[in-house]
Amino acid sequence: MPEEVLAPSVAVTQKKSFLRAARGEHMRIPPVWLMRQAGRYLPEYLAVRADHDFISVCRTPDLACEVTMQPIRRFDFDAAILFSDILIPAIPLGCGLRFDSGHGPVIERPVRSRNEVDSLREFDPREELDDVLAAVKLIRRELPDDKALIGFAGAPFTLACYLIEGGKPDPFRNVKRMMYSDPEAFTKLLNKLADFTADYMLAMIDAGADAIQLFDTWGGILTVAEFRALNLPVLQRIVAALNHSVAPTTYFVLNGMHLASVAEIGADVYGLDWRMPIQSAKARFGTQASLQGNLDPVLLLTDETTIRRAARQIINDAEGAGFIFNLGHGILPDTPISSVDILLDEIRSSRA
Ligand code: 1CP
Q: For the domain bounded by 3-347, which CATH number is listed?
């Protein structure tokens, strides 16, 4: 990000510890938020979901704002993440989306041929996802000044996996078939997704998002060469578009340790899963980017001593780096609230 875009007074008096860490500052007490921090492990979330289906919560600004704020009220996290889903844009793209209970997302009209790529609708996120943007505005108004608001999108490859497979992509048969047999159509699909994603994220920043996270949950299934040829260019394009704004961008890839070219994306922050030791990430990224992560979410299903030891290890390993504490992937629905309390107590214990 060009320095001159940030007024010096903003840089110096920045109250949001998340943004300071995202810009490379080492904070003695790292800022913390948890992926999927609003969700099924919270009784107050389940109470809202008892009366409203998941897509309605995402698309009704008051409800999206309420569930975004729930974990902030309960745990005082340093960042809120907009309550939405990476698959919501499937609706204006014309693919149809529903969530069947127990089965996860269903894309009603999967995209598997060149014709189906060509017939994806072009849309303006400011018009057709205006309800999501209204939620961002509302949340930013509700959120205290010292908390950052994170807007997000799926990375084009991960989104493509769901659109092609028609739901949870594992084992990626249709995705790989299209990628191997018609790389041109596949690239066209990624580019179409990258186009609206950059616009959508800029619209979120205009609406009040302080930072953006790109979720590339499935990017790690690619080989080193495929990632470089297909995924890297679209990610670079989105990040370049966003880096002209004042909001830092985080790139999160699951199981992507083999992908050296991740470092070329140009993100401000890299989200690590639990497999990547913080020390190795420090060596890979140096002072070029901040780090976020990376407690194994399963650790929150263990006991107090184990949670505290693992959290302390991560904090010690991150010494000296711009660092944001998080999990290595989303919090599990059966996580006890008391585990989150213990984790936060350990992270913040030297704050007193
Ligand atoms: O209440 C419910 O039953 C819905 C469960 C749920 C929730 C709470 C889904 C369905 N999505 C969400 C919210 C969500 N999804 C957020 C909100 C903000 C937060 O608190 O973090 C975010 C950032 C996401 C992102 C998302 N959705 C990803 C990327 C990150 C990741 O976890 O890997 C992916 C892959 C999805 C798809 C999705 N949405 C929902 C489910 C069950 C799934 C996964 C399906 C699968 O296993 O492939």
A: 3.20.20.210
